[in-house]
Amino acid sequence: MHNAGQPNKHRNMKLKKYLILLVLLFSILISCKSSDKKTVHQNIEKQTNEIFDSLVEIRRNFHQHPELAGNEKRTSKIISEYLSNLGLEVKTGVAGYGVVGILKGGKEGKNIAWRADMDALPNDFPDEVSYKSKNKGIQHGCGHDVHMAIGLGIAQVLSKNKESIKGTLYFIFQPEEETFVGAKNMVNSSLFSEMNIDEIYALHVTALPVGQIMVKPNELYAYQKRIQIKFNDKFSKEDAGILYNHIRSEILRKKDGANPWEIPKAFDSIIGLSNPNTIFKDYLFMEENFVIEEDNNQLDIKAYLYETNKSNLPNILPKIEEIISKSEYKDKFISTSFIQENPTVLNDKLLTENAINTLTDIYGSKSVVMNYGQIPYFNDDFFYFQQKTSGVYFLLGGSNLEKGINAMNHAPNFGVDEECIRVGVKSFSSLILERTNSE
Ligand SMILES: [Zn+2]
After folding, report:
1. What contacts 24+ positions apart, CB below 8 Å, involve 265-268?
2. CA–CA separation, 123 vs 136, rounded Å?
3. Residues 6 or more apart from 369 whose CB is under 8 A from it?
4. Full-prediction pTM beyond 0.85?
5. How far, in Å, is the centroid of ligand 1 from the Cα of 204?
6. What is the pLDDT of residue 269?
7. How many Cβ atoms sit within 10 Å of the Cβ of residue 133?
8. Measured in angstroms, how far is the CA atom of residue 144 from the centroid of ligand 1?
C-alpha cells in the first residue's frame, strides 16, 4: 500500500531487485539444505562403520545359538537387552518371543516400522565357519541372524540421530517366520493396533552380489498354491503319474527355453531378475514332485504350483478340470481344489519408487537394482504386515563367489558375506530417516 503513489517504472525496478534477492536467498537455502542432508548421511555412514565390528559379533552370537520358530527365547533376551541399552522403550513377549523397540524422535510425525525375523531352520548341514551352531540340528540357514544384526544396527544408528527424526520408529523383531505364524500373530496383537504404523520396511539377504539392494513394486514372489485333485477308487497310482504329467505340461506357461523353476538362474546377470526380459516373469508351473494319498476309497494327488499373475489365479482350477474332462480319466475324476494358499509379499508402488529415488540419491545409481521377475518357492510372512499397512520388502545381496560364499537361502552351503550388514545398516538408516522427514 505504501508504494501505491510511486511511478510505475520505479516500482517495477524495485520489484525486480526484490525478485533477484528472493531467488538468491532461496537458492542459498536449498544448497544449505542439501549440504545438510549430505552431512547427515555421511554421519550415518560413519556411525555404521563405528559399530560394524560389534554388529558382526552379535550376528555370530545369534549364528552360534540358533533357535527354531516359536523357541526364540535366548535370541529375544539378547535383542531386548540391546535395545534397552540404546535407550529405547522395549516391549517383550509380543506374540510369543517377539520384541518391539520404540524410538521417539525429536519432533512429531509419522510412525515408521522396521521388521527383522528371528528364527532358524531345522538343518544339520556342514557350516564352514568358526562360529558354527552349538545347537545340534538347528542352523541359521536363511540369514535371519543377519537380519537381526542389521535391525539392531539401524536402531543404534537412528538412536544417535534422534533429534532429526520426526515421528516414532518401531523396531519389530518377529519370531516364527519360517512357519508363517509370527507375523500373523504380531499384527493381531493389541500392541500392533496401538502402534498405528504408517509405513513398514524389511529386507531379506539372498544370493545377489554382496551389498546389492534389489526391489520391485507389487508382487516380489510368485503366488504359491497347493492343489488337491480327487479321484474315485477306479483310479490307480499309475494313472495318477500319467495324468499328473499330462496336466503339468498342458498348464505350463513360460518364456521359450526358460525354466523358471531353476532358482539359481534368478541371480544370473543375463537372464535373472535384474533383466527386464528375465525368464522369471509371466509363468505358471506345477512342481515335478507330487504325492499320492489314498483316503476312503479315494485317491488324491497333491502338488504345489506357482503363478506370477494374480488375475490368472481364478482360471487355474477350471483349466485343470477341462484338461481332465478331455482325458481318458474323466469318469474317475471327483473334484479339485486349493488346499493351501498364501498371499505373497506385495510392495507398495509409491513407497517402492520413493525408496529407490532416496537410496540412489544418497548412495549412487548403482546402490539399488530393479527386480523385474518373481521368484517361485520363496515367500515371507511379511505380507501380513503389508495387509495392514503400506510397506516395502527389499532383497539384499550376501553372496561373494570370489570368497566362495553363496547366500542361496536354505541351501546346504548357505553362507553370508557379513559386509552386507554394513550396507544394510547405512542404507536403511538413511531411508528411514528421510521417510520420517517426508510429508
Ligand atoms: Zn528367511
Report:
1. 266/207, 266/373, 266/375, 267/206, 267/207, 267/208, 267/399
2. 9
3. 208, 212, 213, 214, 274
4. yes
5. 7
6. 84
7. 21
8. 6
Name the burial class of residue 6, with classes exposed (0-12), middle (13-18) and buried (19+) by CB atoms within 10 angstroms of its CB: exposed
With bands split at pLDDT 50, 70 and 90, how would you rate the model's confidence at 6?
A: very low
Among 15-19, 108-112, 155-159, 353-357, which is the least confidently predicted range?
15-19
Q: What are phi and psi of 354, to 5 degrees?
A: -60, -45
* Nearest-10 crossing angle of helices 144-160, 73-85: 10
| Residues whose beta carbons lie less than 5 angstroms from ion ligand 1 | 142
**Cα separation of 424 and 419, whole Å?**
9
Cell 508351473 locates to 285
pLDDT the model gives residue 256: 86
CATH of domain 41-218+346-436: 3.40.630.10
Give distance in angstroms: CA of 233 to centre of ligand 1. 41
Average pLDDT over residues 391-416: 96
Q: Tell whether the model's pLDDT for residue 4 goes beyond 50.
A: no
Report the b/e string of 229-251 with b at 16+ CB within 10 A.
bbbeeebeeebbeebbebbbeeb
For residue 273, the 8-state DSSP code is T
- Overall size of the chain counted in residues: 439
Break the chain into its structural domains and give their ranges: 41-218+346-436, 223-341
Q: Which of 3.30.70.60, 3.90.226.10, 1.25.40.10, 3.30.565.10 is the CATH number of 223-341?
A: 3.30.70.60
User: What positions carry a catalytic annotation?
Assistant: 117, 178
